[in-house]
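Quick one: structure tokens for this chain, please?
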Amino acid sequence: MLDNFVATVKTLPQMFYNTVENFADRPAMKFKLEGTYVNLNYGGFANISEEMGNGLISLGLQPAEAVAVMAHTSERWGWADWSIQNVAGITVTIYPTLSANETAFVVNHSESKFLYAGSDDIANRLLNVWDEMPSLEKIIVLVADSKITDDRVVDITYLRNLGRNYAVENPDAYNNRWQSLKGDDPSSIIYTSGTTGDLKGSLLSHEELVGALTRSLKHMIDGGYNASYEDVAFSLLPLAHIWERNNSYFAMIAVGGMIGFAEKPTTLVQDIQEIKPTWVLLVPRLWDRIYSGFRGAFLSNPEGKAMFEWAIKIGEKVLEKRTGPNNAVDFTIDPTQFLDEELAADFRRADAMVFSQLRQLLGGNLKIPYSGGGHLPEELHRSFMVLNFPLLNGWGLTETAAGISHGYPNATKAGWLSKIVPGVEAKLADDGEILVKGIGIIKEYYKNPKETEDSFTDDGWFKTGDIGEFDEEGFLRIVDRKKHIIVMDTGKNVAPAKIESLFTNSPVVEQVVAIGDNYKFISALLVPAFDMILFMLKDKGIAYDESKLKYAEINGVETCIEVGEDVINAEYVKELIADEVKRINEYLADFEQIKAYTILSRKLTEEDGELTPTMKVKRKVVMENYADKIKAMYA
């Protein structure tokens, strides 16, 4: 069926209306409306997208013209996207946290004619740089009652009314638009900030996006799971990011499944329990928080601690028994078939008392929990597997239209990915860089011939920029970004991700940047877990200057982002950090060990330009910002 789908469906609107035709009455979206979750079926979804699409045509949008979407993930992001796609426009995705100046660059480079803003706040930010965006004609706020009175700004109610009136006078215009599209017509431009801070746009056609989606659905069948209209995805990550948009939101629409939208990051647990998804994509940092919170709930009292530690011992034994000769675990079958009667009974008790509580915490129906968008530490991956939880590791790039190697439920290897998806070839260059070509891989960066030339080999392989390795079965593991590999003056190569990932479960260190290029040893910038450190200081009765503390909302949580020098210079804190570094060094070869470090008094943040919107460290910026401290470690 998927082969037939690829052969006949060449554009995203074809895919959309194929589902609308077959599943019009089935729920397409679940979202909060005035404090209560409601469902919208595919017929209603199509109707709203049509009204908005006709509104864009009425405003003057021509085929192959760009419309930007700058909004937090919600059902309205989806309506905006399909209103653009279904009238042959090009969707330009912009992270809602991007600065006004960076947004102006994207709007200008893509020549976006209109921009959907998720709120009045976003629209007001852009009004301040309007004169710097000559191509922009209107901002459309995705709320029904925008309070902005500027004539250049309209809201979604205005656009839908405009579209309804236009459709009465031009009944064939909308269908003619999407039905005239071809597979090689442009669909989306997705800008990546990269860890150097440079913005570049990946131009993806309809055929590339449809092909990328279907290659992943085929890959999942190989892994023992067949997606269907009964699936429900939990959508929290930015839809501006290719991974959430392609492997979650497009995937559900392709098969007629439902997308459940989280209200906000702070209500993740409440929302996921309400939506009860079968399918969720989260970044490693969120999986780490989920694991730490789950474990912490048990460890908060002596009885729970004893129960958790016992269950972990049972989980370790069972994981060892169910691990095959190829080091893979099949999570699609009952593990007790590998166990003797006593261990099977212990496993059932551990599962009932501990392991199942994690599944219930995440809604009770999860079958496809993916980690992606960053490096998943092997130890964290394994920790979930011990809990009988099939966490799947995924890898891909914007340029590859998201996942091209993502875990198999029936063959999960801790720290590894999977084989490469069908329709894509991969090989390693002499230096270990992963090279790929095939379905869904970009052919060019938008209006950037130099970047395009630099990113492809002479014979057409795309250079991913990631260093990897394959095992004897063709399973892939990511070592690190090529440009991040540290080359010491001794000639030794060190992957900073290996060092940094060892701190993932650290209770006292939250951010780490390993350093060592052209130096004789490895050093590090360490950012303590301030909230935990402050709690521990208070618990010990150690005073600190509270007037120096600064807080900010990160992922919806009020978090301490800066402390005074008295905190990081406290002997107790220095001892905690020293003990943690000593513990981590035990897992590293001598030349990889951290021989010097500096404790920072503030977090690395997106606002300070040190993190990308997906929370990856911009190493170049950090190295510049802390050049004096780095130099001092090698003095």
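The longest helix spans residues 302-322.
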